[in-house]
Amino acid sequence: MRASIEGQDLQAFARAALGNLNQFPQDANLWMNLSTLMFSLGQRESAFASQNQGLLLQRNFEIPALEEPSSFRMLMLMVPGDIAANTPLDCLLEGSDIDLICHYCALDSLLPDPLPPHDAVFIAISDAPEQRPLLTALATALNDWPVRVLNRPQAIPNTQRDTACQILHDIPGVLMPTTDRISRE
């Protein structure tokens, strides 16, 4: 993603990733990196196929802190999907001393098993109608979690622009534009 933001040649990265996959076809990290590259290149079908292959191999991915020893271990709960499907916490924490453990959730695999040691849980899942059952299940599963839960799943539907407008518009000192949901027609 950083290369995409910087305007680097993603085609070259994609060719290199494919070459690496020819050598290491069971490397889930390589599949997920190729997926991100394909999304960035607008190749959605290839991106989803690569992501699905990576997630068949494993559902947990670790991004170690750049600075060691790490000061904090964050369990980040995500869903499969394009770049907008999850909050890009990994980008926000890039270069920090925080270890990220990314788990791709599904209704039949809510939480990692075994559960890795962690200091907090961050729900990275964006609000979308198809994710509501998963968010509901996570809200129940994390209700009495022994460590901090950031971005609680039951609050995520409030992040929709029209809902946030309704919630925030009466707070003194907050300037909130009126937002209404309308159909394309």
What does this protein look like?
With 185 residues, the protein is α/β, with parallel strands linked by helices. The chain contains seven helices and five strands. The protein has a five-stranded mixed β-sheet, with no helix packed on it. Strand 4, helix 6 and strand 5 form a beta-alpha-beta unit. The protein is globular and about 55 Å long. The chain starts with a helix and ends in a 17-residue tail after the last helix. The model has no long low-confidence stretch (mean pLDDT 90).
What is this entry, summarized?
With 185 residues, the protein is of the alpha/beta class. The chain contains seven helices and five strands.
The gyration radius over C-alpha positions equals 18 Å
**What's the helix-strand series?**
HHHHEEHEEHEH
Classify the secondary structure makeup into a structural class.
Answer: alpha/beta
Tally of DSSP helical segments: 7
Main sheet overview:
5 strands, mixed
The helix content is 25-40%
Question: What is the arithmetic mean of pLDDT?
Answer: 90
Largest sheet strand order: 1-3-2-4-5
**DSSP E strands, number:** 5
Shape: globular
The low-pLDDT segments are none
In what range is the share of β-strand residues?
5-15%
- Alpha-carbon distance between the two ends: 35 Å
Topology:
Elements: H1 2-5, H2 10-23, H3 28-40, H4 44-57, E1 60-63, E2 72-78, H5 89-92, E3 98-104, E4 120-123, H6 132-141, E5 148-150, H7 161-168
Parallel strand pairs: 2-3, 2-4, 4-5
Antiparallel strand pairs: 1-3
Helix pairs in contact: 2-3, 3-4
